[in-house]
Structure formats: structure tokens, C-alpha cells
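Now for our specimen.

. . .
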Amino acid sequence: MKKKYPTLIEGPVLNQLLSLTWPSIGGFLSMIIFNMTDTYFVSLMGTEALAAMGFTFPVVMVIGSASTGISMGAASVISRAMGQGDHYHMKRTATDGVLLSVLFVTIVSAAGLLTMDPLFRFLGAEGESLKLVKDYMFIWYIGAVTVTMPAISDSCLRAVGDMMRPFIVMTVCALLNVVLDPILIFGYFGVPAMGIRGAALATLISRFAGMVTTLSFLHFHAGLVDFSIPKFREVRESWSRILHVGIPATMTQLLLPLSRSFLTKMAAASGGTVAVAAMAAGSRIEGFIQMLIVAYSLALIPMVGQNWGAGRMDRILSIRRISLRFALVYGALVFVVFLFIAEPVARLFSSETMVVKGTAYYLKLMALSAAGLGYMTFMNQSLNSAGKPYASARLNLITYIVILLPLAWVGSTLWDFKGIVIALALTQVLGALWAHGEAMYVFRHPRVPPAVEEKA
């Protein structure tokens, strides 16, 4: 490695967690700005263009979830290898993770270009909306590798404890997108107006800049790119280690949006457009509640992975205790704050009284259960980082399918929209209890002594 990153297997755990968390807050904000910018400028083109963006969401979400799964797999392997002092397999995993991501996106993009018409007709697009969807996705598919590449490279950097450079990458992408969206969509400074194709191109140019930046960091700063030609067996084994975590992680990434789509359908049946609007607005605002939760969970990747690789179970149990306390304290603060601001914030998204009340009710219940969501998220990330993806997958499957959907059905039957929200809040608390049991069993009874895991 060109830069000798200090390992996280010694020193004060709390201080290390805090120092790893704060850069990710800025990165998460940058991604919120990126997504809101696209939505805002496309909305100025009219309802058809905004609807077209909506039709692209399921496809982009599935590809993004798979890319995130590969990223999580690579980060888990790298962080554990760093804890073991195995620098060769750190470089091999980072390089092979990038290659795997490129291969996956190339295959998916080729298939996507050949199936645009039937796929988006199946999703409900027709007429002008279908034309706009195809205009957007043709460009998106061509440059999809630029969208997925920063995720895998940034995860590799986080695995060695570098949280600042991924923040820089996400900030570069967000700021460039803010500048390019209006220029390419509406045409300024002599650039012809491209409409929705301009939105797609702005995304790809911004992501391309992020891709170049993060790959430069990965090679020149971290020294995690291996240019030697490996044997096919080495690549195959490297991909196997990555996908051991990556495939279950991808499946669990899809469970939450899938379950939320069922909740939206239930809300439409029980409360009509008012309930759907309230849930949609509440979900967007809820992203700000989750900001610190996501940032802290990213800090767990190098902390848990490296200590698992070094066999420091005492430190992992300390990390779990700190995570529980953080979730409880943060959840309490969020609840107190949203008791007072839920309704005023809801008014920013709608002027209809019933939508405002529904959104405020949603936000208060989600704030009440924020501690449960936080702790469950932390244990999910910890299990994946420790190379125990099936425990994480089991946790998510039970939480979002076995618990949430039946509770939401009962809630909608008894109390309409409010019952659905109650079910969602209760699920987050029950999920946290299950997560605690899964984590405690894995961390106190590792099947293989972490320090002597097979090094391929």
C-alpha cells in the first residue's frame, strides 16, 4: 500500500467511531442534494417528464442495489484482511471488486438497451412518458459504469478507514450535477437544450468525474489497485469471497423498497391519494432522520471488519454496546425534536390539511421508533462487515416480510393509514430486538476463530 493506514484494532473505540462518522454526514448530504437536484429540474419540464423519471426508478434501484451489494462484499473482505495484516489480498480484492462491478454493469446495460421498450411498457409507461423514459435510459445505460464505479471504490477506501476521500468524491459529484443539470436540460451558455436527455447526461458526467477521482485515490493514495496479471483461479476465488457477502447483501437491499411498495399499495387502498401523499412526503423527510444513522453505520465497516480479522472480539462487543447507546440517545433526541417540528415541516410539502396531518403523524411515529431502526441498521452493517451476511439476510427477511407485512395488513384493516404507520414503527422496534439476538450470538460464538480465517 502506498499509504500506510493505521489499523483500528487498538486505541479508544468511541473516539475512533466519532472520527470515522462525521465525514460521512457530509457525503450523505451531498447525495441528497444530488437526487433532489435531478428531481427539481426535471419537474420543471412538466408532469410527463417527472413521471418518466418515476418509471426509471425501479430499474435504477435494482442495479444500484446490486452495485451496493458488491461494494459491501469487497469492503467486508478488505477490512478483515487489513485486520489480519494481509495487504496482498486487500489489493487483490479491491482490484477484482472493480473488475466485477464493470463486468456486471456491462452485461446489465447491454440487456437493458435490448429490452427498454417491453420492460418499461410492462412497468406502465406509454405514449410520451415511454418516449421520455427511453431517451433518458439510453444515455444512462451507455454510461452506467460511471454510476456504479464510485460506490465500489469508495467502499474500498472506507474499509481501510479513509472516510474523507469518499466524502470528497460525493461532493464533487453533487456540485457538478447542480451546475450541469440546468445547462444541459434547458440550454445555457450556447449549449443546446436537451430536455430529459440532458438530465441523464448531467448525471453521467458528474459520476464520471467522481469515478476518475475515486479511482485516483484508490491507486495513487491508497495503493489498492493491483496491475499484475493474476491467475484465473485467484480472480475466481476473490469474486467468490466478495459475492459471499455481496449476493445476500443485494437481496436484503431490495427488501426494504419492496416492502415499502406494498405499504404504499395498502395506504392507497385504505386512505386514497391523501394517505399515499402523506407517506411519500414523510418518507422523504425521514431521510434526514436517517442521515446520522447511515453515517455512523458506514463507520462500522472498518471498525468491525478490522477487529474481526484481528480476532479482537472484546472490541467488537464494545462497539456493539456503544452502538446501542448511540441508537437510544439519538432516537430520544429525534423524537423530542419531531414532537415540535413534525407539523411545520409537513406544511413545506403540502398545503392540504389532511396530508399535513398524515405526514406529521407519520414523522412522529418514525421518530419514536428511530432508535430501533438505528440499532437494527448498525447490527446489519456489523454482521456484513464480519463476513456473516446470512445472519444479516435472515434479520431483514424476518423484519420486513415476516413481521412488517402481516402487521401492516392488520393495522390497515383496523385503523386505516394510521394502522400502517403504527405497524411500521412497531416493526422497527421488534427488528432491533431480533438484531440484538443475532449480533450477540455471532459475536460471542464465532464458528471460526476470526484471526485464523482461511486466507484463500
